[in-house]
Amino acid sequence: MYRIEFSDFFTSAFSVDCIIFGFSGSKIKALLIKRAMEPYENFWAVPGDLVYPDEDLPQAAQRVLFELTGMKEVQMHQSQSFGNPNRHPQGRVITIAYFALVRIDDFEVKASSWAEEVSWVSLDEIPTLAFDHSHILSSTYELLIQKLKTEPVCFDMLPERFTLNEMQSLYEFAFEVDMDKANFRKKIKSVPMLAHDEKQKNVKHRPATLFSFDRKDYETVKVNKDYQFKM
After folding, report:
1. What is the pLDDT of residues 182-210, one digit of tens each?
2. Residue 112 confidence (pLDDT)
3. What is the pTM of this model?
């Protein structure tokens, strides 16, 4: 029987993995990097790396994301931890997942460090990922789905000014269902949004009115009227 020594508890490494979601072309996408080093060289993965010994976890997440993709000042939230003893071929590595919702057009991503490529990939086209990153990504996406049902997080991915069709497309993709246009607009009637005297540009169809989320009104209504966002 293996005898556990006290020193054995100090032989694990820690890493952070950054799951960044965005929305474009009617699809929710995740930011992936292509690894240019072993293990899993030439595999796609979520941006992640080891935590320095003197580094706090949020600091590590910001550093790793910037070093691999050029993205900085991204508001990330810690979600889950993954600690299967065999998840890394070089030894015991416990990873902490951080996720963020961003507007893709707000960032110019570029591969750097040991990332050979970086790409926004639709969640219905994700290839086999390195390590257990497929599991990490799908688990974090499940968390996003739950948030989409009860929180107005969709507006963190939609353009600042969006059409109602874009908003509907996001929910249709997330819940894998076609929604009736009239029923969807009835469903979101209570969501605080501002209609602008501005329409889409450079489109082949009839330009649609642009809207924006009234976050200030949402916070006021939520507090004063016990309002709950629900989809």
Report:
1. 999 999 999 999 999 888 877 777 889 99
2. 96
3. 0.93
Decide which of 3.10.129.10, 3.90.79.10, 3.20.20.80, 3.30.2350.10 is the CATH code for 9-150: 3.90.79.10
Residue 12's nearest CA partner among 84, 75, 72, 66 is 84
Residue 46 and residue 139 in contact, taking contact as beta carbons nearer than 8 Å = no
Q: Which residues contact 7 (CB under 8 A, 6 or more apart)?
A: none
* CATH fold of 153-224: Arc Repressor Mutant, subunit A (1.10.10)
Can you say whether residue 113 is alpha, beta or left, with left for phi > 0 and alpha for psi between -120 and 50 degrees?
A: left
Among residues 10, 19, 8, which one has the least CA distance to residue 129? 19
Give the three-class secondary structure for 17: strand
